[in-house]
Amino acid sequence: MIFMAIPGIGSGSGSNNAFTSATSDNFVSKDTFLRLLITQLKNQDPLNPQESHEFVSQLAQFSSLEQMTNLSKSIASVLESSVTNLIGKSVAVIDALGNEVTGRVDGIVYYADGPAVSVGGNDYPLASIQSVAM
Q: Crossing angle of helices 30-42/52-83, nearest 10°?
């Protein structure tokens, strides 16, 4: 079996290391996946080539990955646009202590893990919303 270095993938400690950046998010990028597939094709044993159904399977997995990524982006976009419709509405939320807090949504705050509503000067994640009223 022949092993070959792929540019951007390896054991280096640089910040441009594609493997490090891909695994830091627990997600292999489409670019990395395609590089690995192409390298696999280039370096396969000509006397014992990989079965064609294995390539079809890998391409199907890649297609599924791409569709899930696009769906995730679409859902995030819909969520972000619908959150702004909560501004000015009365909501009931559960605070960190498990108490129900009611009030009017003053604004939306965007954190790394998603948007939150601002009620009475405190921010609450969307999952804590129990009800919405006009």
A: 170
Q: In what order do the strands lie in the sheet with 114-119?
A: 122-125, 114-119, 100-111, 90-94, 129-133
The token duo for 39 is 């390298």
pLDDT one-digit tens code per residue, 38-97: 887 788 777 777 676 777 787 788 788 888 888 888 887 777 777 888 899 999 999 999
Residues in the chain, overall count: 134
d(CA 47, CA 19): 30
Look at strands 114-119 and 122-125 and give their pairing.
Answer: antiparallel
Please state the separation of Cα 28 from the chain's center in Å.
11
Q: Give the H/E segment covering residue 21.
A: helix 18-24
pTM for the full predicted model: 0.45
- Hey, which residues does 124 pair with through a beta bridge? 117
Helix (H, G, I), strand (E, B) or coil at 33: helix
60 is written with which tokens?
């199907």
